[in-house]
Every structure is written in C-alpha cells, then in structure tokens.
Amino acid sequence: MCPSNQTNSPIEIMLVSDQNYAPFLATTMVSILKNAAPEDVLSFHIVDAGLSPRDLEIVEGMKSIRPFELHYYKPNLSEFLKLFPDDIGDFPLVCNYRLFLTEFLPQDLDKILYMDVDVVALGSLRELWETPFEDRFVAAAKDKLIPDQQYHLDALELSSDHLYFNSGIMLVNVKKWREDNLLPKILRTSVKIRDKNVYQDQDVINVVADEIGYKKISSTKWNCHPTDYVEGETRVLHFMGIRQEHPHLDILTSYAKQTPYGGLPFQKTSYKIKRFFRIISFKIVYFFLFKGKWRRVYRKRFTKR
User: Fold this and answer.
1) Pairwise CA distance, residues 298 & 110, whole Å
2) Which residues is 45 bridged to in the sheet?
3) Which domain holds residue 68?
4) Do 220 and 305 belong to one domain?
5) DSSP calls for 1-27
6) In the chain, what are the helix, strand and coil shares in percent, each to the nearest 5?
7) Are 168 and 223 within one domain?
8) What is the SS3 assignment for 48?
9) Distance (Å, rounded) from C-alpha 160 to C-alpha 181?
10) Is 293 exposed, middle or buried (CB count within 10 Å of its CB: 0-12, 13-18, 19+)?
11) Are 259 and 23 in contact (CB under 8 A)?
12) HSE (CB half, 13 Å, CA atoms) of 73?
C-alpha cells in the first residue's frame, strides 16, 4: 500500500454492506468509479457483513468500468457489539463496524475514507481525501437531521459548542486512532450512553469527539442531504432516512440502473402505510403526556422503534 502522503496515492475507501444493501453498495461504487478523475487511483475496502457469492461477483465485475484495488474483510466483532444496544430497529448492529476499523484494517494504512452505501459521488474524492486532519482523529460534516432534536443532544450531555456530525461519511485518521488507543474509550462510551443511545455508532463517536475534537468539513460539499443539494458544488449526496421521499432521487436511481441489480430495494407501500399510522398514534399519545420527562421518554422509545 502506498504511503498516505504520496502524490496521487490510492484513495482508500471503506464500505460496509450485507446482502440487503448490496444494490446500494454497487450504486455507490458505480458513482465513485464513473466520476473519479482520470489520474485517481482507487482502492476499495469492502467489509462483508453478509454478502452473497453473487454480490461478490458483481463487485469484482465493476473493474470493467475502470481498474481498482480490492480488499475484503469479514471481521468477527461479536465481543465488541454486545456492548451496544441491539433494539434500535432502524439501525442494525452492523452500523457499528466502522468504530472498530483498527481491529481489521492493515497496520500500514494510515487513513481511510469511510462512506455509507446510500451515498452518491458526483465528482472526484481526491480533495476530500487530501483534507488535512490538523492532528484530529476524524474529519466529518454537521448532521442535517439530529441537531433539530435538542432533547437528544441534551441527553447525551454534549457541550453547547459541539457540532453534532454525521458518521455516514468520515475521513478517518487511522494512525491517530491507533496511537491514541481510542478503542477502549469508544467501548467505555458505548456502555456509558447505552440507555441514551438512539443513533448507534453516531452517538458514540460524537460523545468521544466532544471530548477530543474533530476536523469539520463542508456538509453541502462532502455530505449533502438531498434537500441541500447545490448543483456544481455538491460532490457527495447522502440519501439518508426515507429515501423515496427525498428530492433529486433521479440522481440516485440513475446510478442504480447502471448496476447489474438494475435498481434499489426501496421500502414498499405497506411500510409507508404502517409508518403513517405509527406517526399519527405517536402524536396522539404525545399530546396527552403533560410532563416533560414523560414526553422525553416516550419520544426516545418512539425513535428506537
């Protein structure tokens, strides 16, 4: 592997997926490959959380778009994951894999660009890859959704000046994670906030970052929610949440159609109906909860469902 400070060294990209999200994995990879600069060297680190043999063949077949390096990992993280709540329905435990990357990534890898598989790259990632850490352990962008939920930030006891960030796209200073031995701190934090944890790894890593700091990057440019998309400026679109409700869905589906899957497994109509009645029932019950403490507890349980 090339040293991370070498000109045009490989852009090392880590993606995590199981069989359910394999079409999203392929979509993200296609967008990166199609929009990379001619001089970019790409190296994908695929964390296999349950991919099928066909999924693996499809990933290999993408080398026909343009050549890239490929590394697979299938880590056993059960000893770590048992410290995390497993009842957060919208966030499976596999979300936490990124927190333990120092346990399975090569020792000579100094940094990595972690990306969720519901993102689309609209240009070269070289500029993001070369972002200086300034001695921080991670570079990330402000979260679009969570800052509106002040009750949750208060529950995590984050400082008033902490900018809660989204963990779906992070440039990780792997070398510093190892040198500072952050894993024990991450595990202690996961236990400490276990009863307050709503967003899995994202809550944990924000609490850790609140103590030691992180490098801020532009959300509009590098981790952009579709509602904030700026044509010509946005380089990475992140279709987080209920994707089929987002604007600019045509961008996501256009790359999905270029994969062997031919599309993405969006939530079915039955899911939308169920979610609609769930929200209505929440609002009715919430209206009759007069004590602030009751409301906070009920809202938290609703979010976890």
Assistant:
1) 43
2) 14, 71
3) 11-266
4) no
5) ---TTSTT--EEEEEEE-GGGHHHHHH
6) 45, 15, 40
7) yes
8) strand
9) 26
10) exposed
11) yes
12) 21
Whether residue 158 contacts residue 192, with contact meaning beta carbons closer than 8 Å, is answered with no
Query: Within a domain: residue 130?
Result: yes
**Are residue 57 and residue 80 in the same domain, yes or no?**
yes
The verdict on residue 2 lying in a domain is no
Strand ranges, E, within the chain:
11-17, 42-48, 69-73, 112-115, 119-121, 138-142, 165-172, 215-217, 236-238
Which residues sit opposite 223 in a β-bridge? none
Q: Could you give the CA distance from residue 237 to residue 262 in angstroms, rounded to a whole number? A: 20
Residue with tokens 């392929």: 26
Q: Which amino acid, one-letter code, is at 250?
A: D
Same domain, 181 and 298: no
In a domain, 4, yes or no: no
Pair (32, 83) in one structural domain: yes
Angle at 187 between CA 183 and CA 193, to 5 degrees: 140
> For the domain that residue 153 is a member of, what is the CATH number?
3.90.550.10
- pLDDT tens per residue across all 305 residues of the chain: 544 444 579 999 999 999 999 999 999 999 999 999 999 999 999 999 999 999 999 999 999 999 999 999 999 888 887 777 665 445 666 778 999 999 999 999 999 999 999 999 999 999 999 999 999 999 999 998 776 678 889 999 999 899 999 999 999 999 999 999 999 999 999 989 988 888 889 999 999 999 999 999 999 999 999 999 999 999 999 998 778 889 999 999 999 999 999 999 875 555 456 656 766 776 677 667 766 666 666 665 555 44
Q: How many domains does the chain have?
A: 2
3 within domain boundaries: no
Same domain? For 73 and 179 the reply is yes
Q: Quick one: 256 and 276 in the same domain?
A: no
Model confidence, pTM: 0.85
